[in-house]
Specification:
The chain is 38% helix and 23% strand. By secondary structure, it is an alpha/beta fold. The chain has a single domain, classed as Rossmann fold. The strands form 2 sheets. Strands 1, 2, 5, 6, 7, 8 and 9 form a 7-stranded mixed beta sheet that branches. The longest helix is centred in the last third of the chain and has 21 residues.
Amino acid sequence: MKNVAIVYFSSGGHTQQLAHGIAEGVRSVPQTAAVLWRIEGSDLRDGRWKNEEILAGLQRSDTIVFGTPTYMGGIAAQYKAFIDACGGIWYEQAWRNKLAAGFTHSQGLSGDKLNTLEGLMIQAMQHGMLWVGLGIRPEGSSPEQINRLGSYLGLMAQSEADQTNLFEGDRQTARLFGQRIADATHRWQRT
């Protein structure tokens, strides 16, 4: 059994919906488990993030998928605090050769989501991880179409301010991304 951890922060619920869609895709691949870990504001104390249960769960995984909304053109502060708290893991290179992937959501069609995905990828590279891109050709730009925002580095999604649920195309893209991540995990982790 291969284990994929999805660690994310979500304020409005859209990033959480993406995380669940990715998990659904991961679980659709035989012999693959997905575990969701949510970064909570309550894990922040005096500006520092700490949650040993999440860190232990990530250590047990074969692959880690990182997810955050894009706020003001970058990674949400709550998620950045989690990334910064992983400095000891970086020092030990404990995640070296694990697979990594990333996803983000914003209200704007662009919203500078590429900057967020680049930030997630760079922190994964510093850990010695191997990045899995989206790998899905865009069908078009309509809300019901796959990879409608044309991202390749990772999953990007967008919703209107008053919209509760994701567009169907974004939801389906999340599922397909989860399948790709699970397939890559099996290819990379052959033991």
